[in-house]
Design brief:
This protein has 8 helices and 12 strands. The protein has 245 residues and is α/β, with parallel strands linked by helices.
């Protein structure tokens, strides 16, 4: 069979990558879209299970980038940005109950601190410290890079981007002992020249990077350094995003 014909028989996978931030309810004086109530979060997990979606871990995801046919027909990836303690306190027990792995993206300069990088727009919330990140890892949550200072890449020059990419990876690997293979761009911003960021990511040893927003990724075909994710807020209609049929 000719190679072109073989490619025509390759199965194209739809891979929804769900992107959460905070789990719970915001403080009374705040009206934040980035908090998903606990009950809503559980409904999302239950919907995935009841409609046959198989939540995969980071290793299966990385293998699927190269060999999409290795993925389950209905595979999904759960991700959490910023490393908030509410993920450990509220989301983790439910992930364990459902037996679902996940990926958490952490800005390394803020480990054990609070989310002051968003203080003008969002309520400050504690970010996990290293002991809490190790606990998450023990329960199946892979800790990966959200750069170091959580600054928008479009506000950084190429050298600063390279520094953020390399420093965050080195810090996570030194503290946790696991390889760091993927990054989520802070604010979903790959910079004014995404190609430069991609080159820096490749050079540092990253295998993929994530945007924020968009529908399910389509494999093969997506740029692995600009993968879309479904933004999850309190009113995200997962039934509409991922119809049961």
């Amino acid at each position: 069979m000719r190679s072109g014909a073989r490619r025509g028989l390759e199965t194209r996978r739809r891979l929804p990558i769900l992107s959460f931030h905070r789990i719970g309810t915001p403080p009374p004086e705040w009206d934040s879209w980035f908090y998903v109530p606990e009950g809503t979060f559980v409904d999302h997990l239950r919907y995935l299970r009841e409609t046959g979606w198989q939540v995969i871990d980071l290793g299966a995801f990385l293998a699927g980038l190269t060999a999409p046919d290795s993925l389950p027909e209905k595979a999904a990836l759960l991700t959490f940005d910023d490393g908030f303690r509410s993920v450990r306190e509220v989301a983790l027990p439910w992930l364990v109950r459902f037996g679902y792995p996940a990926v958490m993206f952490v800005p390394t300069d803020f480990v054990g601190r609070s989310s002051s990088f968003d203080a003008d727009d969002e309520p400050e919330e504690p970010i996990c410290d290293w002991a809490e990140l190790r606990e998450l890892r023990r329960w199946g949550v892979s800790i990966q890079s959200h750069a170091a200072s959580h600054r928008r890449f479009s506000k950084l020059d190429p050298q600063e981007q390279e520094h953020e990419i390399a420093r965050s990876k080195a810090t996570l690997e030194a503290e946790l002992g696991d390889p760091v293979a993927v990054l989520a761009y802070p604010y979903g911003d790959p910079g004014v020249d995404p190609g430069r960021a991609q080159s820096a990511l490749r050079h540092a040893g990253y295998q993929a990077a994530f945007l924020y927003g968009g529908g399910p990724a389509r494999l093969p075909g997506e740029d692995r350094y600009r993968l879309p994710r479904i933004a999850m807020g309190p009113d995200t209609d997962l039934v509409a995003e991922l119809p049961a049929g």
